[in-house]
From TrEMBL, chain B:
DNA-binding region(s) from the entry: 123-220
Residues annotated as domain OmpR/PhoB-type: 123-220
Pfam family name, one: Trans_reg_C
The protein's name in its UniProt record: GlnR-family transcriptional regulator
GO biological process: regulation of DNA-templated transcription
GO cellular component: cytosol; protein-DNA complex
Keyword Ribosomal protein: no
GO molecular function: phosphorelay response regulator activity; transcription cis-regulatory region binding
Lineage of the organism: Bacteria, Bacillati, Actinomycetota, Acidimicrobiia, Acidimicrobiales
Superkingdom of origin: Bacteria
Amino acid sequence: MMTATPTEGDDMERQQDYVLRTVEERGIRFVQLWFTDVLGAPKTFAITPAELENALVEGMTFDGSAIDGLSRVQESDVLALPDPKTFQILPLGGSGSDPTARVFCDITDLDGAPHKGDPRNVLRRNLDRAKERGYTFYAAPEVEWFYFADDDPSSTPKPLDQGGYFALTVADLPTDMRRQTVLTLEDMGVPVEYSQHEDAPSQHEIDLRHTDALTMADTVMTLRLMVKEIAMERGAYATFMPKPIAGVQGSGMHTHFSLFEGDVNAFHDPGDEHGLSKVAKGFIAGLLHHAPEITAVTNQWVNSYKRLVVGYEAPVHVAWARNNGSAVVNVPRSKRGRAESTRIEYRAPDPACNPYLTFAVVLAAGLAGIEEGYELPPETQANLHRMTPQDLEAQGIRALPGNLNDAIDVMERSDLVAEALGEHVFEWFIRNKRSEWSDYKTQVSQFELDRYLSAL
Amino acid sequence: MGPLLLFPDPPPPELAQALDLGGHAWKGVDGPGAAADEPDGGWSGAIVSADEQPEAAFALCRALRKRDVPLEPLLLLVTGAQLNELNLRDDLYDDFCLAPVRQPELVARLKHLFWRSGRGTRPELVEYGPLVLNLETYQAAISGRPLDLTYMEYELLKFLSSNPGKVFTRETLLSRVWGYDYYGGARTVDVHVRRLRAKLSEEHAPLIQTVRSVGYRFGEARWSV
């Protein structure tokens, strides 16, 4: 990335020129520099147009020690280097507010080397590996979330509607907010495939059309911000917490993945009974083989594991199937049999994951399966949720880790995840999650009080 | 638009022939003095051959570039043995071409140079129906409404709307608009077309037509039935 060819250099100059002229012509008052910490939280600081030219060329120095996973204290200063291709005027803000634009940044050390703690760089590195093998990696997530009246943690969250799956609700606030979100995303050039009311009360979903994984990870960050911001403008609260209410479905981020070789979908093979190529089978095998190891990344919170339980359409078992939502890897029937839409769906991730790291570990697992020639286990025909533990064991079907602690244990022993994330992020992530688990472990929950206080 | 300045006078015959065949008006000069004597409409550019009189040629280049309004584009013709002479002289020319010239190369380089310097075939505005692109300011508007485009969306729209009615394959668009290998591969084109359509809004989205199993076309087909 650092050794740009002259062509790329010229192109970079034109891109920077484009950004500077647009800021000038459109009267932009603030440019928000966006980046992401290791846990997937959006971070930003705003600069004025006067600082922009310098920022584009040299980057903006800031103290990274305050950002989760970014820096050690003794080397705290880092650079935010805007990626001019991601420059976008923000459609939000009422008539009175200053016109604002955003641009995603890569984080570098002061000497310009990609920062090891920057999730965008982690994903780039893994995409480069795929590219060396001739592959482009595409992702299309289905993002779910809940609207609540507020974010007061002292009481059970209050849903704003009682609609169910695909419910046609009339002019209610959540549907209106979702509609506004879709329009805003389209204004920002994010094509939305579907949006719908999900199964649980006040739960909504937006499905994004596939794009290259780096752009998609940026897009997931944009989507989460827009959903929350629009809810806040309407005096409501939107959350991507994986399981905010016990007894109803949690929020997932099922994501469709495919590899292309140039214009050709590398997952498709017209000669195969189910249209799946050797590459696709290797990818699935890799994903299944490493699924438990990557779960701490795709499901990174204590609460994530309250979603991964039997009975709520969330995956629990490491198996694959076609058109079967109970398996962690699902192969959807391609639309109208179109070769180019052949893809696999990974159903474990939740919308509170870090999309950069999630796409990175999924890709690493899939590539390992292709390169090492892992054998694809037989397809699961039955509903896994109804199988007995004996049946599962007889078929050699493992379960995903049952809680964050187990997930971290498996991840810690994974060379694949260590390599995909890089030692810096790997090590920081494990320490951070160990600490989260130990905080959680020492709590006494409402469940325990209700169950034990009077009985014991 | 005035003629091209050629050095030396007379210019190498193969150069003159190539320009005549390419439909470019030109006038030979023998040094900075003659170059200062501008024809009607001014010089539209210069082609300086350093083959026979390298020192005079570079002196002329310098004179043309150090004017209040530097003359551009300036195409320099050098022999393979003279490539070293280009060191530290990057500011004196916009592009160079190896002598003896091959006509197709010369014509292609001139066309590109004119395009880059904003003269000749490149207009300031691209207009098609309700769509207007201002190439100077990089701004696009549809029915007077400014479009908030990313850089690549703008470049793609510019390319398509500058060539209305023509069908382009994804590979062509990728190589002409993106120009170098990008993460997205050829599918990138589809993704950007979808984004552009979303931003153009439903009403104007059909400006970009999908041509089944070929690629994309901007505006109406040239051979509408």
